[in-house]
Amino acid sequence: MAKEGADMTEETQFMIDTNPGKEPEHVESSGDAKEMRAVVLAGFGGLNKLRVTKKAMPEPHDGEVKIRVKACGLNFLDLMVRQGSIDNPPKLPIVPGFECSGIVESVGENTAGFEIGDRVMAFVNYNAWAEVVCTPADFVYKMPEEMSFAEAAAFSLNFVAAYMMLFEVANLREGMSVLVHSAGGGVGQAVAQLCSTVPNVTVFGIASCSKHAAIRDSVTHLFDRNVDYMQEVQKISPEGVDIVLDCLCGENTAKGLTLLRPLGTYILYGASNMVTGETKSFFSFAKSWWQVEKVNPIKLYEENKVIAGFSLLNLLFKHGKCNLVKSVMDKLLCLFDQKKIKPVVDSLWALEEVKEAMQRIHDRGNVGKLILDVEKSPTPLMASDSTETSEAGEEEEEPEGDNDSKERMPFIH
Amino acid sequence: MAKEGADMTEETQFMIDTNPGKEPEHVESSGDAKEMRAVVLAGFGGLNKLRVTKKAMPEPHDGEVKIRVKACGLNFLDLMVRQGSIDNPPKLPIVPGFECSGIVESVGENTAGFEIGDRVMAFVNYNAWAEVVCTPADFVYKMPEEMSFAEAAAFSLNFVAAYMMLFEVANLREGMSVLVHSAGGGVGQAVAQLCSTVPNVTVFGIASCSKHAAIRDSVTHLFDRNVDYMQEVQKISPEGVDIVLDCLCGENTAKGLTLLRPLGTYILYGASNMVTGETKSFFSFAKSWWQVEKVNPIKLYEENKVIAGFSLLNLLFKHGKCNLVKSVMDKLLCLFDQKKIKPVVDSLWALEEVKEAMQRIHDRGNVGKLILDVEKSPTPLMASDSTETSEAGEEEEEPEGDNDSKERMPFIH
Fold it and tell me: What segments bear the compositional bias annotation Acidic residues (chains A, B) (predicted)?
């Protein structure tokens, strides 16, 4: 695994910055087979650090599969990467993106099981937001016939993460209760669906009021993220809950631990509270890190509680657990075939619309997954728009928040 | 549960100090049915805080079973209680002891399933080290015919704790690896036996050299507690281990977390490093508490690790999980009937020998469980002894450590 990781880094270095020219946005896919369109992150910061440009086409190394990308998943983690708010941020510039779906275009040596033309979904250690990616065959899975490319790009990360947290880390069983933050997001919706495959599981969901109508049926109890959810949960379940899934961190960690019943498990799987409207540097991340409330093991002992962290990408790309993830994916594809689970796609966006898509995640406007549809043309700007979105190369910070007037209408799936 | 707990406290207040007279050691069981012998802890501190005295006989309340005690389990936790090194130490004086076996002598109302004469083992929220105890029927279990009273007193706490940590908290499965500190102790031996019921589980045991010959066959790899076990384990298993069971706390917490492989679980189930030869007060415990290295949840997230605390007594007496514990006991009794597990008894001691027994646990001389045998007469002191063991009422601190010359020979089972 370590060797493969090193190769990927060289690959990345090779792929990017071969066309550092000015204003490459809205470049059309050319007939030149050696080039491809890709989203590039030029520096850590606001939306203006992203641009679409032409890059050299990657070719598969030994053990890799080359995929003509149809759709890519956009995750909250991508915003954290953009802001540099992650531990060990990558060396820039880089093509972001950790998951995609598409068609196998060629294969390297030692990629038994894959053939040109296969419809696949894949994890990628960066580089997913491009017309073509190469990734080790260990991270590639064949798509069911009934699954669309958009669904496949919405499936891998969210469902594998949700499944592993519920069943590998926390051992969800009949009659248990689960509290999930961001119940309307991609992982939240996957959690709700997977909980429904186990008898008599109570799901407490927390989400912005604006999403309540859309997701009310997916959970047992739904709370506004702005109310005192602890009190509400304790009213319904004075003993607390068995599993808390937290992607926010910060003050929610202490609340989550308090809400656990004995033998309950709190799982931190993200830290989206660390992303704000401001540009974040690695140093501000480090500061947030230290501000997180630390847990005394003796307190866990007194209270019979379990606290866990879960990062699927680290599991795949740092910890070498691709075989375990493969076995989980097999189980998930069974559940999909049985129509017990189905990825929820919020909206589709062209590569050139990645800024608007990120803004929508930042504003927590999505229900389910945002997808970058590589073959989609950008939707024309709304008539009310008076300016273009900020261009690459612009140096001013672009405030994230109330810039509705600049937004394109998303293509709602 | 709360009500029952309150009743127990009153009961305790009532039971003790009815005979505060001087020098009650070596009191014989009298014919008077209203009195009984019991070990009493008069103050937090050294061995001299313990004495055997006569107490008023308890009678069962509604829902309680009255047991004529045959054998009691002695645990490291009892040393912590004696020193006051636990959170919320009890109001003194108190009769220590959390588990016993014996014969049902009478039953209160609402104790369906138990009859006079039943051979039983039971958890007790203090008060176990006496000739008679009353405890709620929820904490009483019928003994298998093939089990001796000493085995039963060695069974409940160690095997239930080991089972719940391995299978409820950590989800032990085929092919996993487990590291257990104090592999020669009661819980350690139970862990080793339960691991052998799952195919292909590797057990790394850590124990004093003096125990190695006795326990070598019970574990896969055995290390001296004084060597750098981290390095040794990493040599054999560079990826680390799946489950770490730690009853020591302190620096072992950080080491245990480091040794975990991704998705692995560290479980703290005791803090015996907090007991030293010195008398401990609540304040020194509080100090130790704050000195324990705290865990940043984000670090768990980066590393995909799980940290858990497990206290069976809190689960039973504070957290109301007696039904869950009952179901675990049923599974364990099945394994006992199938001869897959068998409690390891280190030695039997008279109530009057409780100080020597505690010294043996303190010195980590035991392999398996120490039992107080209520019907046993004290073994005569060794010829080399020039003084009696310290008497009740003595105020000097008795140094724990090298007082071999005072020890009686234990009755080795």
Answer: 391-402
